[in-house]
Amino acid sequence: MTDFLEVQPSDPSLVRYAKNNPARLGMLSACVLAVLLLQVFAGQTKKTKLAKGHLAKGLEKKNALNLMKQQQAAKKLTKTAFNIRQPGQKGFLAVPNAQPGVLVLGSPGAGKTASVINPLVRSAIDQGHRIIMFDWKYPDQASQLVPYAAARGYKRINVFAPGFAESQRINPLDLIESPEDMIGAQELALSILQNDSKVNTDSTTQFFLDSAASLLAPIFCVVKGCQYPDLLTVLMILQSENLIERLKSAKIGRYQRLMLQQAIATAGSPKQLAGLLTSTIKPLTNFLLGDNMINAVVGASSFDPILRPKEMIVFGMDRNNSEALKPLIGSTLRMTMKNNLLNKCGVPLIASLDELSTLELPITEWLNTNRSDGFVGLIGLQNLEQCDKDRRRELKTGCPTKMLFNPNDDETAEMFSKWLGKEQVGTKSKTEGWSSGKRSRSTSGREQAVDMLQAADILKQPEGVALVLNSGHRNAKEASVPFRHRFTYTSKDEAQEAKLQGLWEEACLPRLVGRAPAMTGEVDAMIKARRNEAKKLLGNPDKGTHRGPKGGNK
């Protein structure tokens, strides 16, 4: 069989042109060969790439810087940008498009709080935003950020840290609009129960939680309209004898009565009803132990929780009593956030929520529905395995900006490695041999797709190094181009922290203690007065004596 390349011209005139003319035939053959070679090389250049992933470089970072400057200058409610350090400084990072949330992951000691969360809050302070901060290790964050805010012109900074002398007072019932606000009462009751560790660790169903909240919420509404509208009065009612029968005879609003009847009917047996009562009494009893605890919640609230520009509230957790305080801190933070989101004033509302997993908060709702209200969440977790499957997915989708320090968790590292995808890399191999008594060498190349960052690479990240994804780091075709960033900590940073700590101890803390509210009375007298008030509210089913709440719907 003869190997040859046959070209059949489509136009017969070409055949006549080349026939009996060797020069013309050679010229035509050369043209055909050139066309074939061009087709071969063109096919090589159009090979499909095995992977398109790549890390951000100078262009993407410059675009993020420009966008950050634009958004900070525009000061729009729904376009918030932060900066960590200043442009030109070592370790600078632009964080445009921060809404609705920034997710920061990292094991203890990896650097997420000092390197990211605190600098982001400082950037928010520099711009005069409203700030609600949860300090799990109070006063670790507060001692750095409260003096910084005061130095930047924040005039109204309040601390709610039950158990500490500097704590202001928040009466949770003040966060309910009126005795008829059944929705607010139900939300407050459910939040208290959800944040109670006993309820959560017992794997109690949502059905049981709703039933317990249906029992507690009407009592909140009844107490809201009485002489002593606080949780101590609620506790006295819950501890009353023959509570259910007395509630049936009490003169309360129709909607409160309907919810109460629903809770009683749902409980069914007396044993189940007793379980509902126990679950409602326990969290209230826990955080009403001790004078400082009682002073933090009993009586009228000592400040207005609605924030305006350049104002800040710190919710501080006493770790020695964290299990008892979680229901109180979680519920008051939730209701305070809700009321501030409803009262937007054209300035973003920054929620600094480091160690989010320690509280039960509606973070998904805030991320998904409150962006237009100015909500920006700064969320800190050790790893995503601290959350259930649904919460993990919601945080990943709800926080466009993500920063991953070493999570010290295989599954979190593997998740991000898969998420980043693959990049195309080329490899070359050389071979040597002998042919016809001569040594021969050849080189061959091969393209392959590999993970941009393997899970093992993420788990080897040293302190202060994080993988960053932010939609402002983009080019003409892609957004959220990832990159690794090294955060810096210099001697100047150390000196600034020491200075702020000194200001906290010498200036801020004494001032906060001086502003803290005094006890509204002697504790035994307060308990006696509220026990008598509970008797008046409940009445006596045998005698038919009762007194309804002021303003209650009949």
TrEMBL record:
Composition bias, Low complexity: 433-446
CDD domains from the UniProt entry: TrwB_TraG_TraD_VirD4
TraD/TraG TraM recognition site domain boundaries: 349-462
Subcellular location: Cell membrane
Highest taxon of source: Bacteria
Gene3D superfamilies: P-loop containing nucleotide triphosphate hydrolases
Any one cellular-component term (Gene Ontology): plasma membrane
Keywords: Cell membrane, Membrane, Transmembrane, Transmembrane helix
Membrane-traversing stretches: 23-42
Predominant location: membrane
Record's bilayer topology term: Multi-pass membrane protein
Family annotation (InterPro entries): P-loop_NTPase (IPR027417), T4SS-coupling_protein (IPR051539), TraG-D_C (IPR032689), TraG/VirD4 (IPR003688)
Region (Disordered): 424-447, 533-554
Entry keyword annotation includes Transmembrane: yes
Family: Belongs to the VirD4/TraG family.
Protein's name according to its UniProt entry: TraD/TraG TraM recognition site domain-containing protein
Species: Acaryochloris thomasi RCC1774
